[in-house]
């Protein structure tokens, strides 16, 4: 919201031409890093300022935590502590994100919708616990069904917004610069394109003055002519795309993926259109935007070829329908993993702060063309505004920790833990970082794994030996350590140290390709 008011409206109208330092200073609102920083600060301040009022209201409504019977006396002492504090996290994230992000991002809204949906599932679970005065809310099937529907919605949005590689008029990043290159061609590709333009388009190019009406007309004309070029099997020519035929200050640099596609050289259909579009994007990186849509390849750390997205050369391309199963697995796994970790004062909140901090950095580099190219990771420019969302989640979790630190004044409840897990999984999917989730949220994965191992081993031994046995004293893992004699603060601090280690490992994978 502030981006549109302070940058698009005020700066663009007064900042460029005026001498006022105030107006010129509004230029910073276009930068993701600036807006992410302030989204973090805003969410933190909202949590700090309104946390006490939210806790007071929860107490007035008699919304207290119910404790499972099998837990220790230390946990039973917390019975009645206000729960559903996750609404504070969600509120802080939403307000901060709406204030600081660009609101024309599909991925941003998809992350907000998915987080809300998981939060609603958690809210219903918490509500049933409180109303019926029991430690269990929704049944396992009901909860999984809600999570499955949310995963299906995420996939459906990605599937139905992934189009072809044809040009739309709005995909020109710098129409002025592109018009100059075609009007005064200095390289072999621009010379070829100039010859492919219709007389009407050439006339528009010659008389182009940057006005809104002429911009729209030229965008439509260029899109039509370039789409004709995309269907041309002879567009690629080794001599035409030779770097020697480009000026020194604007040398052609074909991407590794484009070079791989050249070896296979598709000559017809969608493969040809994608190939020619990629060639144009490599020739005009500052003028033409990347083709939109979601890539149905799985990006795996340590293997840079898995960052290739074109089905012609992508070694991990599995298509949208198999990817649906992958999305379901990631979202259900991440949301339930955070939910299982939320069992001690400050534990899930601290680990969320660390995990989301790492994911904020990973989202930024994935959305930035320079960093993603340098680090050989899948470039997702559509995910840029997710950096602001992640920053807001970092600030909100840190602010909530102020009230959730031991002894906790409030618990986040399932409304918070399921929403956080859903947010982690959704952002990882949208930025192609799914395989980094075990590093980003290592503690969450370990906690979930301990439950699965415990349940699986118990059922196996009961079936084979007639009596169920356990691996841990109690699961999730933090309860095991509690029963061995560790105090809650020691467990939380040590888990936080391990979480920091995992987060650093996730960042280190950026250079291990």
Structural commentary:
- The protein is 64% helix and 0% strand.
- Helix 3 (32-60) runs parallel beside helix 17 (386-404), helix 15 runs parallel beside helix 18 and helix 15 (347-367) packs parallel to helix 22.
- It is built from 22 helices and no strands.
- The protein has helices at 2-15, 21-25, 32-60, 73-76, 86-100, 106-132, 140-160, 175-183, 188-196, 199-206, 212-230, 256-264, 269-283, 319-341, 347-367, 369-375, 386-404, 413-430, 437-440, 442-465, 477-483, 488-508.
- With 513 residues, it is mainly α.
- The chain starts with a helix and ends in a 5-residue tail after the last helix.
SSE layout:
Elements: H1 2-15, H2 21-25, H3 32-60, H4 73-76, H5 86-100, H6 106-132, H7 140-160, H8 175-183, H9 188-196, H10 199-206, H11 212-230, H12 256-264, H13 269-283, H14 319-341, H15 347-367, H16 369-375, H17 386-404, H18 413-430, H19 437-440, H20 442-465, H21 477-483, H22 488-508
Order of helices and strands: HHHHHHHHHHHHHHHHHHHHHH
Rg over alpha carbons: 26 Å
| Low-pLDDT segments | none
Largest sheet: none
Distance between the termini: 38 Å
- Put simply, the count of helices is 22
How many strands appear in the DSSP assignment? 0
Overall shape: globular
Measured by DSSP, the beta-strand proportion falls in: under 5%
Mean pLDDT: 89
- The percent range for helix content is 55-70%
């Amino acid at each position: 919201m502030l981006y549109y008011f302070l940058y698009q409206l005020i700066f663009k109208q007064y900042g460029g031409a005026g001498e006022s330092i105030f107006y010129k200073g509004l230029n910073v609102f276009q930068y993701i890093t600036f807006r992410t920083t302030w989204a973090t600060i805003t969410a933190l301040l909202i949590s700090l300022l309104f946390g006490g009022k939210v806790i007071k209201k929860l107490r007035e409504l008699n919304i207290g935590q119910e404790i499972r019977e099998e837990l220790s006396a230390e946990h039973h002492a917390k019975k009645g502590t206000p729960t559903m504090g996750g609404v504070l996290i969600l509120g802080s994230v939403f307000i901060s994100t709406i204030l600081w992000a660009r609101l024309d991002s599909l991925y941003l809204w998809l992350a907000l919708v998915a987080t809300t949906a998981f939060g609603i599932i958690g809210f219903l679970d918490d509500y049933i616990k409180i109303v019926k005065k029991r430690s269990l809310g929704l049944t396992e099937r009901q909860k999984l069904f809600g999570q499955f529907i949310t995963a299906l919605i995420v996939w459906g949005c990605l599937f139905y917004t992934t189009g072809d590689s044809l040009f739309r008029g709005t995909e020109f990043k710098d129409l002025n610069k592109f018009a100059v290159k075609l009007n005064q061609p200095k390289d072999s590709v621009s010379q070829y394109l100039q010859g492919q333009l219709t007389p009407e388009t050439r006339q528009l190019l010659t008389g182009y003055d940057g006005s809104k009406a002429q911009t729209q007309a030229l965008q439509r004309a260029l899109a039509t002519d370039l789409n004709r070029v995309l269907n041309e099997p002879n567009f690629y020519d080794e001599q035409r795309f030779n770097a020697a035929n480009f000026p020194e200050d604007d040398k052609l640099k074909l991407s590794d993926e484009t070079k791989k596609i050249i070896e296979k050289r598709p000559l017809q259909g969608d493969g040809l259109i994608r190939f020619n579009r990629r060639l144009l994007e490599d020739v005009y990186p500052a003028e033409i935007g990347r083709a939109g849509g979601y890539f149905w390849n799985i990006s795996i750390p340590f293997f840079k070829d898995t960052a290739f997205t074109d089905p012609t050369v992508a070694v991990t391309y599995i298509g949208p329908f198999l990817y649906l199963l992958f999305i379901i697995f990631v979202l259900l796994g991440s949301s339930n993993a955070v939910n299982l970790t939320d069992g001690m004062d400050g534990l899930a909140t601290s680990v969320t702060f660390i995990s989301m901090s790492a994911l904020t950095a990973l989202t930024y580099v994935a959305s930035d063309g320079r960093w993603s190219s340098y680090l050989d990771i899948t470039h997702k420019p559509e995910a840029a505004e997710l950096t602001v969302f992640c920053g807001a989640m970092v600030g909100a979790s840190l602010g909530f920790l102020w009230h959730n630190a031991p002894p906790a004044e409030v618990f986040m409840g399932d409304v918070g833990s399921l929403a956080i897990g859903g947010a982690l999984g959704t952002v990882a999917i949208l930025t192609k970082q799914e395989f980094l989730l075990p590093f980003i949220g290592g503690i969450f994965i370990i906690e979930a794994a301990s439950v699965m191992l415990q349940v699986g081993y118990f059922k196996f031994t009961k079936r084979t030996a007639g009596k169920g046995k356990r691996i841990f004293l109690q699961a999730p893992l933090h309860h095991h350590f509690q029963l061995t004699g560790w105090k809650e603060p020691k467990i939380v601090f040590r888990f936080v140290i391990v979480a920091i280690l995992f987060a650093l490992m996730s960042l280190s994978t950026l250079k291990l390709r």
